[in-house]
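Two records follow; treat each independently.
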Amino acid sequence: MQVGVFAKTFPGSDPVTVMEASAAAGFDGVQYNMACSGLASMPDAISKDVTDAIAGASGQTGQQVFAVSGTYNMAHPDPVIRAESLARLEVLAQSCSAMGTGLITLCTGTRDTEDQWRHHRDNGSAEAWRDMTGSFETAVAIAEAHGILLGVEPEMANVVNSADAARRLIDELRSNSIRIVLDPANLCERASADERQRLIEHAVDTLADRIVMAHAKDRHPDGSFATAGTGVVDFGHFISALCRAGFDGPLVTHGLAAHEAASVAAFLRRQLEMATP
């Protein structure tokens, strides 16, 4: 596995700055965000100068661009907002090859109209599932047209809130473009160590054929998020489960401050060394 980090962890609005910081901290690559090029995360247009700068920074620093963030609220109740976001998703998809990546990361969204990461009581409704899968049908067509993959991350506050819901999405849409970004901290808020391990093993077993990236953030005992290595998630167990499933892609950390980056990179490398056969 390779060790990566969200590019937005580091300050700066040009790709060389953030990728140099990532390399200095000990990472192999980044999950890029267009904000690191001084644009909106989901811009209306991306120029050749911008994609050339990202590809050039990657070559200059030796940092792989593991993915680019394309997260938006795929289950937003307003169809106009969903359509506008899908148009921006196509802008990203058109630019992926030039940026040196073949993966866009997504979230499945929520019925909350203000915050795409906040749970809403209607997330489990048939209407929410219908609108979310409708967004995915268009997103899949975009991905297939541009030869890229879509990395879906199960999130407890979103419509796809578990490994089983992610499997349902994969099975219903039947597209090889849909892949999974798996974050152990998103599988439960508060649970015993045994329950966390059971949930991790179930998620890996259920989604093994589609996992394209793993994420590394942590949870405090009270359920709040934490920097990887400072909470209750057993990363050795998570990485071992991924290895048993044959996963050898990037393990990308986020939810940390820039000054923590080097220590988190070292922590993840130690976990990989101990868990990798």
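The next record belongs to a different protein.
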Amino acid sequence: MEIGFIGLGQMGKAIAGLLLGSGHKVRVWNRSPEAVQELVAKGAQAAAKPAELGKVDFLLSMLANDAATRSVIVDEGVLDAAHPGLIHLNLATVSVGMAKELAELHRRRNIGYVAAPVFGRPDAAAAGKLNVVVAGDPATVAKAQWVIDAIGQKSWPVGDRPESANVVKIAGNFMIASAIETMGEAVALTRSHGVKADAFLDILTNTLFASPAYKLYGGMIAAEKYTPAGFAAPLALKDVRLALSAADANNVPMPFANVLRDSLMELIATGGGDNDWVAMAKVAARRAGL
């Protein structure tokens, strides 16, 4: 079985490297060549253009946004070149509308399509510790399950409509961003009264909020560890906007999503575009004059 991988950002490169380390045959393509060469050095084969990967058995893609996904998968001929037995697993966080469009484009061509967005940062991806949210035709998912199992510690099926997995991922990222924002504001409050961030967060993340997300991001806030970015602020802003778009489509009020959007926009507008999204805490501190 040959696996193709398109999109070698931090997450994609980590996942493709994991597959290579597990002994799988992997062909890769990325718009910028540096990541490709890094994986070729580890045993991957390089594709000269995306359409070449339409001939593999399983294609994984992890592109930055809707526009990049449409440009590479559709406009650059991946689907047109794909053989009918191909199964495409889209690991990216795309909009609900894009997920529906991709499902229909694959269906017309008799190509398997599984939405498989992931929860986890690059270090978790490299260690095979991702949580994979999965949706698509059950028979297609069953055929691809071994690939899903190879990249994550657990898969979470949410139905036969691919967009279901994407809305779960979007909602999950909204919740993480909310946690970061509330911790940032709470730290600004306690710091203004003389309590150190690490002391406050040590209490809260080991009592009321003793969960992985709070512990991870609380530790980063306490250490003011904003770079290098495991998940950059512009990607987080994209995902919050996807949540707002999905909510707007079904008349679902999400007032706090607007707060998150504005915090991320402020972070980016004030020079933090290369920061991790946890740097929303820096915005909260600056607003408080800290």
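Discussion point: The chain has a mean pLDDT of 97. How would you locate this feature using only the token line?
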